[in-house]
Design goal:
With 234 residues, this protein is mainly alpha-helical.
């Protein structure tokens, strides 16, 4: 029986979803090349194809990949319909904002979304952690830790929402459907990685560390003992 498909390389994802679309938008949007519409369609084709390939390869619905596909389609719609550039900023803010709100609301439920996005079976040996919690009688304390981590996780999406909006409003000012709009969209895409993606990943890592530190204290397990990769090698 074949095992689960290996995760795509983050470098491949960076090249296909950031580098190539940026190059296409900034280099091929002139009337003498592909034109604004042609370059926009080609640039959007790469992240769309990558998102679709990821969903098919994993053979199950992947939340983040699905959101990426929807975001790309919305960007294409704004460009092709020549909507006001402010709608791009609204779209950029709305998606992480909606996720952040959903995460925050879930903190009041029995199933906080931090279990899906951080404390999940792809990263942690959830069964081993839960067994250790039960043996020590610390399940309730860990649930409180999960709720606090959920609020912190929501904060990372709020940061992403605000940063996305401000970046889009600062960089993209030209009418949609023009060469200038494509150039600015490419610049925004390029800047989003150091300005938004990397800080968001660092914040997410901080949430994971907060959760892992609490799990260590409440279970007595070391971090490497809680990780799925270590458990798979035993």
């Amino acid at each position: 029986m074949s095992g689960p498909a290996a995760k795509p390389s983050p470098w491949l994802e960076l090249i296909v979803t950031i580098v190539i679309p940026t190059a296409v938008l900034m280099q091929l949007s002139s009337a003498s090349r592909l034109g604004a519409v042609g370059a926009l369609l080609l640039a959007l084709a790469f992240p769309l194809a990558y998102g679709g390939w990821t969903l098919l390869r994993q053979r199950k619905l992947n939340l983040m990949a699905s959101i990426g596909v929807v975001s790309t389609l919305l960007t294409g719609g704004i460009g092709l319909l020549a909507l006001d550039a402010q709608w791009l900023a609204v779209k950029e803010a709305a998606i992480p904002g909606a996720i952040g709100l959903a995460v925050l609301v879930s903190a009041r439920t029995r199933y906080p979304l931090v279990r899906v996005l951080v404390f999940n079976r792809a990263i942690f040996d959830v069964d081993r952690v839960q067994q250790a919690l039960r043996s020590r009688g610390t399940e309730a304390a860990f649930d409180n830790r999960l709720q606090a981590a959920t609020v912190l996780l929501a904060g990372t999406f709020v940061f992403s929402s605000v940063a996305n909006y401000l970046l889009a409003r600062w960089v993209v000012t030209s009418p949609a459907g023009t060469e200038a709009f494509n150039n600015e969209l490419g610049r925004m895409t390029l800047l989003s990685y150091p300005v938004i993606v990397i800080p968001s990943l660092l914040m997410m890592a901080g949430v994971m560390y907060y959760l892992a530190r609490g799990a260590h204290r409440l279970t007595g397990l070391e971090l490497e003992q809680m990780l799925r990769q270590h458990s798979a090698q035993r």
